[in-house]
Specification:
376 residues, alpha+beta, Glycosyltransferase, 2 domains, 4-stranded antiparallel beta sheet, two-stranded antiparallel sheet, 43% helix
Length: 376
């Protein structure tokens, strides 16, 4: 984590990728030169980076490190840097003093080509992206890339957003910027980390009054913007059109991780899964949705990290039966397919392989955590 925070900008912003030895390593696209972080006066001149961020997991990771007895002085410094990062998010991204922050790119959600973002990205006219040149590497690295990765048009729209953000020095967006979304996943993880920072602040003698205030606001307004009573699920809120994006995705369940829903709402969300025999929880997009794609990245497959977060959240509610069901189902995916990046969501299949990257490290790490768990 220290290496990650070595690239923190002077205004507190934390980019999601640092390009160490960028001149030597050009296999990633878009490359360091494409992002050109030097356009921002706040970027670290000697270390190239992207100009977007990703869900702020650092607070609860630091709390786990602290609880394991790791170097308190080291953790204390990282807590200060994480608080600065959260303050930056609220300063730059907060919507109307609600304690909820907007993401400005689908990559900031961590769910790159999720069906959630289709209606948002379709605001970018095809004519605006025709001239964008692609140098994609992912299609050569991943098996069955035509059916498991975003399309070229998708990628051109992603790069259009990067181009617009770069033109604005990664510091602001115009009023008509197409991607302005309150994402329940990003905001849940922000709230989860805020709770950890407050507890760490008490132990390390930090002033967390600002974080406490924003946590209170975020919890107060979360359901107002993101909960849909009719479906009993959470959905993103498109700020440009002031509407929820009502597509059933795995992200709809991540507020459970942060302890946001009431116990009765969590039980309502989980009850259908206890009798569902055809699907493994939780598909990144549900089969009854029009744009579901079984193998395609965040458009249908199951991801271990999403299941792990829901499982952890259920333990926090002391819903041990529901948590054990998710744990058993998730471990079963790896037993059947191997340690892949994402997985077939259907149970009635003879397929013997997962999708995306093989020997995938975060799948391995989280499965190990699930295997080691015991509530006895």
């Amino acid at each position: 984590m220290q290496i990650l925070f070595s690239g923190q900008w002077k205004n507190g912003f934390l980019p999601h990728i640092l390009f160490h030895n960028a001149e030597r390593h050009t296999s990633y696209f878009p490359s360091a030169d494409y992002w050109d972080s030097s356009v921002s006066k706040y970027a670290i001149p000697e270390l190239k980076s992207t100009g977007i961020t990703q869900p702020p997991v650092h607070g609860f990771v630091l709390e786990k490190m602290f609880d394991k007895g790791l170097d308190k002085d080291h953790i204390s410094k990282l807590v200060d840097q994480t608080i600065a990062y959260h303050k930056h998010l609220y300063k730059q991204r907060e919507h109307n003093d609600t304690g909820l922050v907007a993401i400005w790119h689908n990559w900031e959600s961590g769910m790159d080509n999720a069906v959630w973002w289709d209606s948002v990205l379709e605001k970018i006219d095809v004519e605006l992206v025709d001239s964008i040149v692609l140098e994609r590497k992912d299609v050569d690295e991943v098996a069955e890339s035509a059916s498991t990765r975003p399309t070229d048009l998708d990628y051109k729209r992603y790069l259009y957003l990067v181009n617009e953000l770069r033109a604005n020095k990664y510091e602001s967006i115009p009023d008509d910027f197409p991607f302005q979304v309150l994402d329940p996943v990003f905001n849940s993880i922000l709230i989860k980390s805020n709770k950890s920072l407050i507890r760490l602040g008490e132990k390390l003698g930090k002033d967390t009054s600002f974080i406490e205030h924003k946590l209170e606001q975020g919890l107060h307004h979360f359901d107002e913007y993101l909960w849909d009573e009719e479906q009993g699920l959470y959905f993103p809120f498109d700020l440009l059109i002031n509407e929820q994006i009502k597509v059933h995705c795995s992200g709809s369940y991540i507020p459970i991780f942060a302890g946001i829903p009431s116990l009765s709402n969590v039980q309502q969300m989980m009850n259908p899964w206890l009798t569902n025999k055809s699907l493994v929880p939780f598909p990144s997009c549900f089969p009854n949705e029009l744009d579901f794609e079984q193998k395609n990245y965040w458009r249908g497959p199951v991801w271990i990290n999403m299941n792990w977060m829901v499982w952890k959240g259920l333990l926090g509610y002391k819903l041990f039966d529901e948590a054990e069901f998710i744990r058993h189902q998730t471990i079963g995916l790896v037993e059947k397919y191997g340690v892949y990046e994402y997985f077939n969501p259907f149970t009635d299949t003879d397929t013997k392989t997962g999708y995306g990257g093989s020997d995938f490290s975060w799948s391995a790490a989280l499965i190990i955590d699930m295997i080691k768990y015991s509530n006895k």
